[in-house]
């Protein structure tokens, strides 16, 4: 422990720089599978642009709805994770030797129900994470809700989780991702006006309250009903914004993150080590002997 500052971590440890690129783009509201392929054309062009601008980058993050858009025919343009649309993205990740985060609409459960799905493809062109949106946006999004928030090993010591748009309005899913071991939480979004202030607040709170990097990629453009403001951002674990894209413009942001720092904060942090203290309430009181009380006081998750 660093006695001089309860906020500090101490000692020497190795870190690696994880280079992350996030984009904000205007997807087509797909009516046909040809529209889906046009959206994939746009994604691939941005991946090439990122590779040209930031050679050697590690992780590419694209927004929610970047494959399918969000229009009246949205559920009719679902893709197959083993189909030709996703194969194009697998091939591009393998070609560029990067990890990629994408958001297809997929029929995944019994009865062919549409699921708003995030995937991570590794630098070998393999899907290593599949996540179904836990909190679909009510009433506008009639997709089947998810059931688990997985975390996967990424490059440079990263442990990656993905949440999707309205998920980020619920503190529970941020905490679930962090407790499952994520040191970087990626939020892919199709977040519309006029909620740009809420976008910033929830991203900051997710980062600070869970002591994690946050990468938020949001759409821009206008569809049949909404306008999308962008403001994609990457945040530090103290909730400060490292970099941010402008309002309403197609854009690309890039930051170097250091996942091992997150791990060390959670291991050594004394003050504001939220992932430890929420399970060890009152540990500073002599009666609780540095161990504290557990989480059973919380009734919120047992209400119907």
TrEMBL record:
GO molecular function terms noted in the UniProt entry: hydrolase activity
Name used for this protein in its record: Nitrilase-related carbon-nitrogen hydrolase
Domain of life: Bacteria
Residues in CN hydrolase domain copies: 18-259
Entry keyword set: Hydrolase
Transmembrane stretches, start-end: none
InterPro entries reported for this sequence: Aliph_Amidase/BUP (IPR050345), C-N_Hydrolase (IPR003010), C-N_Hydrolase_sf (IPR036526)
PROSITE patterns per record: CN_HYDROLASE
SUPFAM superfamilies: Carbon-nitrogen hydrolase
């Amino acid at each position: 422990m660093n006695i001089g500052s309860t906020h500090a971590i101490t000692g020497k440890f190795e870190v690696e720089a994880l280079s992350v690129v996030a984009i904000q783009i205007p997807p087509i509201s797909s009516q046909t599978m040809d529209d889906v392929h046009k959206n994939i054309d746009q994604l691939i062009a941005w991946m090439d642009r990122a590779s040209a601008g930031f050679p050697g980058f590690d992780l590419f993050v694209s927004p929610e709805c970047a494959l399918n858009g969000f229009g009246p025919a949205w559920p009719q343009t679902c893709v197959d994770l083993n189909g030709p649309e996703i194969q194009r993205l697998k091939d591009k990740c393998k070609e560029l030797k990067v990890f990629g985060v994408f958001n297809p609409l997929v029929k995944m459960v019994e009865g062919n129900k549409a699921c708003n799905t995030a995937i991570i493809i590794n630098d070998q062109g393999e899907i290593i994470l599949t996540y179904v949106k836990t909190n679909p946006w009510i009433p506008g999004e009639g997709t089947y809700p998810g059931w688990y928030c997985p975390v996967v090993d990424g490059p440079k010591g990263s442990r990656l989780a993905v949440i999707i748009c309205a998920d980020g309005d619920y503190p529970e899913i941020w905490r679930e991702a962090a407790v499952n071991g994520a040191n970087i939480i990626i939020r892919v979004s199709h977040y519309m006006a006029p909620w740009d202030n809420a976008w910033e607040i929830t991203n900051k709170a997710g980062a600070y309250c869970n002591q994690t990097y946050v990468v938020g990629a949001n759409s821009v453009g206008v569809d049949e009903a909404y306008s999308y403001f962008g403001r994609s951002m990457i945040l530090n674990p103290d909730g400060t914004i490292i970099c941010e894209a402008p309002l309403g413009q197609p854009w690309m942001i890039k930051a170097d993150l250091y996942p091992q720092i997150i791990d060390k904060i959670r291991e050594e942090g004394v003050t504001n080590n939220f992932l430890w203290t929420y399970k060890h309430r009152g540990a500073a009181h002599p009666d609780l002997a540095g161990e504290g009380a557990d989480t059973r006081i919380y009734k919120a998750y047992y209400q119907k």
